[in-house]
Task: structure prediction
Amino acid sequence: MTRHDGRAPGELRKIEIQPGVAPHAHGSVLIAFGNTRVICAAMIEEGVPRWMKDQGVTGGWLTAEYSMLPYSTTSRKPRDSSRGRPDGRGTEIQRLIGRSLRAVVDLEKLGPRTLWVDCDVLQADGGTRTAAITGAAAAIEIACLSLVKSGKLKALPIKNRVAAVSVGIVGGEVLVDLDYVEDKDAEVDMNVVMTAAGDFVEVQGSGEESVFSQAQLDSMLAAAKTGIANLLDIQNSALTTL
Result:
């Protein structure tokens, strides 16, 4: 099967990771999954949330925020501030980003610091959450590297690298890295987050007015694993130039 943009079923869109796009952040990248573009920035703040002190939790903390800029979609998306309430989808995605990153950061080694991660979608064409996770993982590594270079840490508090990709069934075929056209017609939609060690951090999957078999699930996970391995190679290439 050849997809509408000419890709093979297991082929990623063109992936680009450009570091250093936000000069005031301790670590930042602009990541592109095809026409989906997200700025991921990480800033380090000395100190931890009050709840950690109150509960006697040691180490540091990492938290993420996610938003789609008003001009990221074909019709203007109102800001949360003008709506007067947070967007439920955005809240769910930023929690996913935070969980994915905390899975690979050694918070004890980070020390009593808070790592803030902001993911802002410039252009949305499917897969914004997976692009955000993959880009944010690069941004936090750059930020933590600044702590090492400044002598505040002896070694990176990164246990592993992490990346994410979407996978789904469209027209009965397993496809990787769905764009919007494919995503809206998918019978099954899934997002997979994995570490470089091959461990799953999270799997989000659902049948869109459909069901899927064990064999299809296995095929989707295998396709996602291959896609994430490719993403980690691209991530590594971007980071090794620093």
In short: The two ends are 39 Å apart (CA to CA). Strands lie at 15-19, 27-33, 36-46, 61-68, 113-123, 162-170, 173-176, 188-195, 200-207. The longest helix spans residues 214-240. The mean pLDDT is 95.
